[in-house]
Amino acid sequence: MSQDKKYNAVTTEYQALDAAHHLHPFTNTGALNKKGARVITHAEGVYLWDSEGQKMLDGMAGLWCVNMGYGRKELVEAATQQMEKLAFYNTFFQTSHMPAAELAQEIASVTPGDLNHIFFANSGSEAIDTIIRMVRQYWCIEGKPYKNILIARENAYHGSTVAGASLGGMSGMHKQGAPGVGGIERIRQPYWYGEAGDMSEEEFGIACAKALEEKILQVGPDNVAAFVGEPIQGAGGVIVPPANYWAEIQKICDKYDILLAADEVICGFGRTGSWFGSQTLGIKPDIMSMAKGLSSGYLPISAVAVGDRIANALIAHNEDFNHGFTYSGHPAAAAVALANIKLMKEENIVDYVANDIGPYFQQKLRETLADHPLVGHIEGIGLVAGIALVKDKETKEFFPGDLDIGYICREHCFNNGLIMRAVGSRMVLSPPLVITREEVDELCEKALHCFNLTLKSVS
Ligand code: PXG
After folding, report:
1. Distance between Cα 65 and ligand 1 center (Å)
2. Atom in ligand 1 nearest the alpha carbon of residue 123
3. Residue 292 CA: which ligand 1 atom is closest?
């Protein structure tokens, strides 16, 4: 939208309300208030509209979550019907209800391995907090209360609660709201394009996994509860690890009897062409978190799928697990998630991502953008991708930190009908899984146009 475009009354009214009373997440609110927030009004399929009538192709599926696309009547009806029947009841004091019980079964039917038990929460962050508390409690039950350190990675994102922010590897988050939660250690991320130097992908995969072994030995294997990682890092810029990385990590966890936790908040529910990223990347987690795509973002709900080893210990232990949320397994959210999984199955969406639209998207992105002077590298699987923007393609020189190339590019995208997220100098995409080939073509054409505008802006 051009700066001088005359805003209509609805836009200015809502921008004023927003500026007066709304504090936005992950936002410089002062700067936003001066500029005015974009007011999103409605959506259908893969498109969003704002209050100025501008139509935008949503290359981010909301915030990595609207996997089945906008405007799905089935999900709306599931919520309405459930709210009319039983809008709320808790699952704390020896009660259950149909949507929670059915959803637990349904999730267990799509999770890999022996992840047969489900604990409900409302957000990815709460799911991560649940994992932290549950794995530590597991080792207490096993008589090893000292085995309580969690190892995660730099530039990982595991949420924004105190524990989630502490576990994640985002330095900007550690600086605020400190001190964080203790008992957390971090190792390097497997970002081959950005951090491998002269190493081949294979060498780098081994080196990054070795960093886990070194850390375990440094703090003592008897003190480590679990290693936690996203199969593919999402908010860190869509970092796809070298092909051998996860197999090495798995071996190391097995060797030292350390639980493996997969944070599937972004990778789960078809994003990578399997129900879970763990299946695509060959990980066998003991426990996994999920959120976002579980309900396609229509209502907030998250879950932790718990493997038999941990679940059986918790069940056999004759004591309450003192953890949970008022809305754990909320009936309306659970009903929507159930309807969402049913829809995914009816439309064979996981297969569509694996064998049709995912490969098409990855190929089309590379065909359209790989030769662009700003594009250093494209990585991704299924319907998630990260594109490194660089100053010099040959030398991999990055733009200086004070030139926010990602922000410049994102603004061009916004103003030209495409929503793309910038993570530093990386542009990321994670469109709804229902996107068609024609819509992928449109996305790529728009991205090319916006990359050209970005190049002009910095030339
Ligand atoms: N784990 C992972 C892997 C995530 O991606 C969370 C946990 C936390 O989920 P909740 O529901 O508490 O937000 C996430 C969330 C971004 C962005 O800008 C990414 C997330 C959330 C907000 C913004 O890319 N991921």
Report:
1. 10
2. 11
3. 11
Cβ of 426 closer than 6 Å to ligand 1, yes or no, is no
Strand 149-153 relative to strand 184-187, pairing: parallel
CATH of domain 73-346: 3.40.640.10
Report the CATH superfamily, name and number, of domain 38-71+348-458: Aspartate Aminotransferase, domain 1 (3.90.1150.10)
Tell me the three state secondary structure of residue 383: coil
Query: Which atom, in ligand 1's list, is nearest to the CA of 300?
Result: 11
Helix or strand holding residue 384 (H, E): strand 384-389
Question: Residue 428 CA: which ligand 1 atom is closest?
Answer: 24
Q: What is the pLDDT of residue 9?
A: 82
CA 125 to centroid of ligand 1, rounded, Å = 7
Ligand 1 closest atom vs CA 161:
12
Contact 235 CB / ligand 1 (< 6 Å): yes
Residue-wise pLDDT for 247-303, tens only, equals: 999 999 999 999 999 999 999 999 999 999 999 999 999 999 999 999 999 999 999
CA of 123 to the centre of ligand 1 (A): 9
Range list for CATH 3.90.1150.10 in the chain: 38-71+348-458
Helix 245-255 vs helix 201-219: crossing angle, to nearest 10? 20
Would you state the pLDDT for residue 6?
Answer: 54
For residue range 102-137, list pLDDT tens digits in order. Answer: 999 999 999 999 999 999 999 999 999 999 999 999
| β-strand pairing of 418-419 with 421-423 | unpaired
Question: Which residues make Cβ contacts (< 8 Å) with residue 225, sequence separation at least 6?
Answer: 135, 136, 138, 139, 147, 148, 149, 150, 258, 259
Pocket test for ligand 1, best of 26, 27, 157 (most atoms within 8 A of CB): 157
Find the 159 Cα to ligand 1 centroid distance in Å.
5
Instruction: Please report the pLDDT score of residue 2 as a whole number.
Output: 43
pLDDT of residue 35: 93
The residue ranges of the chain whose pLDDT is under 50 are: 1-4
CA separation for the pair 223, 4 (Å, rounded) = 60
Q: Is 266 in the pocket of ligand 1 (CB under 6 A)?
A: yes
